[in-house]
């Protein structure tokens, strides 16, 4: 058998903490579980103390409805919470309040654009099976001789989004993950910071041979902390499963972890079935009935989402589909771009400078794109730079130099240009003198050009720009250079 005879079958489970002020079933505040001191945001409900009663967080429900609607889901009238029993130190009650038979949202879909390693880009629709609300667990930190438990995160509202097994490659999973994260950020219900665990993606993976008539056993990789790790873990697990089946062995249903250092999956435990969780309706919470009026109120409050923003960038601002996609797929980038436009920059010029130049500077500095609004270059300063280039005050080469100096110093573009005398020379009489001097010093090259070697024009142009210390207006220099050479014919 060869790998071409196997097809990955992947479904994703995504756990997204909702950005509410209080926890899912109590008024206890939600804090940054990485930055806050351990066990400082706890209360009797999140600690699971006897005699406590949960109360449903309305904001969490509405945030979950927003996600469901953005994913084209149905919002059923009848919602019900359930107890999911399992025993683990970070779950103080011994059970988790979740949803099982009657989730918040069902039967949705999301379209993704996929760029495979080989072949052409394509679009694909991934179905969403369900999205349900539950409470998050605490956090364990393993140390020598034991483990430490922090319950700050226990009880934080968590939305679990489950896809159908419609994903057939690591590239598709990556595209889905990136777009879903963008939607959550646009909605304002989750900040997308996977490094802090507020968004966790868990692929369920199996492989299907061309001769199969049904699904084979699957495994689940838990708590991946970046979309790139989702990609890598799927690649590694698909390869592992194919090797097992081809060697005559079999895949056992298991929960896996991802060892980033070794770039391999590791088996953590063999997985429970749903029956072992002993789901039953949560007796301490009422049925949650969601009226159609409530759904429509939430729908009307939805913000502009990535696809709509991309199309507006194309239709209204005249951007290419590529530029609009790059600028619109991350909310922080889209917000920065629109802030630059609000400062008066030309839409197409600003798009080109962000994508081709600012991203390069950020990448060289190891700064993620989602931090674009927090860098030393404000939207106003960046708009100033774009306008200086568009107006001809400085040329593109000087603009790139100024951009790097803005990044390093935090100074504005005009301030740098004025302080260093970088303004472009457009004075035709001054440029004409320099052009004449260059031609007089390069008679052999001029002769070759007049003899038909047009390619040497670039060398003459370079000499002129060098003489002008890079500050000559290229259009003016080109025009005067051709004019003076033509007089020599």
What integer is the average pLDDT?
92
Instruction: Tell me roughly what share of residues is in helical segments.
Output: 25-40%
In total, the number of domains comes to 3
Strand content: 15-25%
Strand element count: 15
Number of helices: 15
Looking at the structure, what is the overall shape?
elongated
* Global Rg: 29 Å
Order of helices and strands: EHEEEEEEEEHEEHEEEEHHHHHHHHHHHH
Indicate the structural class: alpha+beta
Low-confidence stretches: none
Describe the structure.
- The chain has 489 residues and is α+β, with helices and mostly antiparallel strands.
- It folds into three domains: 3-295, no CATH class; 306-420, no CATH class; 428-486, Arc Repressor Mutant, subunit A (Orthogonal Bundle), CATH 1.10.10.
- Helices cover 39% and strands 20% of the residues.
- The chain is built from 15 helices and 15 strands.
- It has helices at 58-70, 170-187, 227-246, 292-300, 306-317, 321-328, 331-342, 347-364, 379-390, 396-409, 413-420, 428-441, 443-450, 457-467, 474-486; strands at residues 6-17, 78-79, 81-85, 95-99, 105-114, 122-135, 139-143, 146-150, 157-163, 199-209, 219-221, 254-259, 264-270, 280-281, 288-289.
- The strands form four sheets. It has an eight-stranded mixed β-sheet with strand order 5-6-9-1-10-11-12-13.
- Helix 14 crosses helix 15.
- The radius of gyration is 29 Å and the shape is elongated.
- The model has no long low-confidence stretch (mean pLDDT 92).
């Amino acid at each position: 058998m060869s790998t071409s005879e196997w097809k990955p079958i992947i479904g994703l489970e995504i756990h997204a903490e909702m950005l509410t002020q209080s926890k899912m079933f109590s008024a206890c505040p939600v804090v940054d579980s990485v930055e806050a001191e351990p066990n400082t945001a706890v209360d009797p409900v999140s600690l699971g103390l006897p005699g406590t009663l949960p109360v449903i967080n309305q904001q969490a429900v509405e945030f979950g409805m927003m996600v469901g609607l953005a994913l084209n889901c149905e919002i059923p009238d009848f919602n019900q919470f359930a107890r999911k029993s399992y025993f683990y130190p970070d779950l103080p009650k011994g059970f988790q309040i979740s949803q099982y038979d009657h989730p918040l949202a069902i039967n949705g879909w999301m379209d993704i654009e996929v760029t495979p390693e080989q072949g052409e880009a394509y679009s694909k629709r991934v179905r969403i099976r369900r999205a349900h609300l539950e409470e998050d667990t605490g956090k364990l930190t393993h140390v020598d001789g034991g483990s430490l438990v922090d319950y700050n995160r226990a009880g934080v509202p968590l939305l679990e989004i489950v896809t159908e097994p419609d994903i057939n490659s690591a590239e598709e999973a990556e595209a889905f993950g990136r777009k879903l994260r963008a939607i959550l950020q646009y909605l304002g219900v989750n900040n997308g910071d996977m490094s802090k665990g507020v968004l966790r993606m868990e692929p369920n993976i199996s492989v299907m041979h061309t001769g199969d008539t049904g699904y084979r056993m699957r495994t689940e990789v838990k708590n991946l902390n970046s979309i790139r790790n989702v990609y890598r873990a799927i690649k590694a697990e698909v390869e592992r499963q194919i090797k097992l089946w081809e060697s005559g062995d079999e895949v056992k249903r298991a929960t896996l972890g991802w060892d980033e250092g070794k770039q391999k999956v590791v088996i953590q435990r063999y997985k429970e079935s749903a029956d072992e969780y002993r789901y039953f309706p949560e007796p301490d919470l009422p049925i949650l009935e969601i009226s159609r009026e409530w759904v429509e109120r939430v729908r009307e409050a939805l913000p502009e989402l990535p696809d709509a923003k991309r199309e507006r960038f194309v239709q209204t601002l005249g951007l290419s589909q590529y530029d609009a996609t790059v600028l619109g797929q991350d909310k922080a980038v889209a917000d920065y771009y629109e802030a630059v436009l609000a400062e008066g920059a030309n839409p197409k010029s600003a798009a080109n400078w962000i994508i081709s130049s600012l991203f390069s500077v950020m990448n060289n500095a190891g700064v993620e794109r989602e931090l674009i609004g927090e860098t030393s270059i404000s939207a106003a300063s960046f708009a100033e730079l774009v306008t200086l280039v568009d107006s001809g005050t400085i040329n593109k080469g000087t603009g790139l130099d100024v951009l790097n100096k803005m990044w390093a110093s935090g100074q504005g573009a005009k301030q740098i240009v004025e302080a260093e005398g970088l303004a472009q020379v457009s004075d035709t009489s001054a440029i004409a003198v320099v052009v004449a001097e260059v031609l007089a010093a390069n008679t052999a090259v001029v002769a070759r050009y007049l003899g038909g070697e047009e390619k040497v024009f670039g060398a003459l142009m370079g000499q002129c720009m060098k003489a002008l210390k890079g500050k000559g207006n290229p259009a003016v220099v080109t025009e005067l250079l051709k004019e003076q050479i033509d007089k020599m014919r």
